[in-house]
Amino acid sequence: MKKIFYFKQNQALDELVDYLVSFKNLEAILLDGELGAGKTTLTAAIAKKLGEKKTIISPTFNTMICYDKFVHIDAYKLKGNLFAYEEDFENKLVIIEWAKNIEHNFKYYFSINVTIQTINEDIYHVFEITKKTCSKSLFIETSLEDFFVCIIENNLVTNSILIKNLIKKTDSFFSVIDEILLKEKTKLADLDYIYTTKGPGSFTGSRLGFLFASTNYLLQKEISNNDLEILLAPTYELFFKQQKKSIIYIKANKYKAYEISKKNGSITINLSDRVHLANKFDYDDFIKNPDAYLSLFKKVNSVLDEELVYASDPQIGGL
Q1: What homologous superfamily does CATH list for 136-305?
Q2: How far is C-alpha 50 from the geometric centre of its chain's CA atoms?
Q3: Can you tell me the distance from the alpha carbon of 102 to that of 32, in angstroms, rounded to the nearest whole number?
Q4: Which of 230, 231, 227, 190 is nearest to 2 (CA)?
Q5: Helix axis angle, 39-50 relative to 14-21, nearest 10°?
Q6: What φ, ψ does residue 40 adopt, rounded to 5°?
Q7: Given CB 3.0 to 4.6 Å as the disulfide criterion, which of 7, 139, 194, 262 pairs with 213?
Q8: CA-to-CA distance for 150 and 169, rounded, in angstroms?
Q9: Are strands 3-8 and 122-132 parallel, antiparallel or unpaired?
């Protein structure tokens, strides 16, 4: 995911720091760039955010300095791997300057190149994330009776909100989205992916999640310098994955349900009066095994070409 941060001389690096430390499973931050560009300044800002009281200095002569919550390494004169230092890494964030000089085995990390650039006669410290193995996703389910949203970091659900039997989701949609982002200490511009179902179910509910994801996709490409990706799946795919049945029922409104059958990979959808047979989705199972469900979603290349799934004319109205 492309992401570049620009800061004027002496400007606080809070936006970048908040973004980095919002990742709960982050193991390392790997820094490269010219002398004086801001590698140690960024390290000091991260240390302050983590609550470190000691003054942060570049470990040029020590090679490594261990603090309470992170380890600071200057790899300018290092070659090979970090095996000799790894016993000090446990449960701590590792920040490495001149990281290109060494090999590492970190699973979740950011590589950041730091430069100084002159733009319109102003001097900027530029932090470009050249590689990241951490991801943060927003999952939205609004097509069913319940309203469920969660944040997923590296295939682990870190925060979730479930509101049972919420008929008018439009009244609380944005406040719930704000709440989940606040709980996660993140923001929309920091997301890598948005997953949402596209029906069948409540047409108004399906449209709500779909339009929110689509709008953010288009806006962030234009104004946020962020390659946000949208992934969609028919709601019935989640049920077939969870319940192992050949026929399922999804509530359309008070009086109708979608009867959906799957045979030899072919899907048939009909409206039915059997609303009492509507299946219930187990969100706890989703939280325990998010990757099993997210694998059902497909990346959207053009949101303008996507359509919601329903059997006949949209069933607009309360569930």
Answers
A1: ATPase, nucleotide binding domain (3.30.420.40)
A2: 22
A3: 11
A4: 227
A5: 60
A6: -70, -35
A7: 194
A8: 16
A9: antiparallel
| Pair of tokens at residue 270 | 């009909």
Same fold, 3-132 and 136-305: no
Architecture of domain 3-132: 3-Layer(aba) Sandwich (3.40)
Q: Extract the tokens encoding 156.
A: 């682990």
CA distance 77 to 61: 10
Retrieve residue 307's tokens: 């359509």
Are the C-beta atoms of residues 315 and 203 closer than 8 Å to each other? Answer: yes
Cβ proximity of 281 and 239 under 8 Å: yes
Encode 91-117: b = buried (16+ Cβ within 10 Å), e = exposed: ebbbbbbbbeebebebebbbbbbbeee
Segments making up each domain of the chain, as ranges: 3-132, 136-305
Q: Which residue has the tokens 């099993």?
A: 292
Contact 78, 102 (CB under 8 A): yes
pLDDT tens digits, one per residue of 97-144: 999 999 999 999 999 999 999 999 899 999 999 999 999 999 999 999
Give the residues across from 269 on adjacent strands: 260
Please spell the DSSP secondary structure of 59-106, one letter per residue: -TTTSEEE-SSEEEEE-TT--S--GGGGGG-TTSEEEEETGGGS----
Amino acid letter, residue 240: F
Residue 115 tokens read as: 């430069």
Each residue's pLDDT tens digit, 245-293: 999 999 998 899 999 999 988 999 999 999 999 999 999 999 999 999 9
Output the pTM of the full model: 0.86
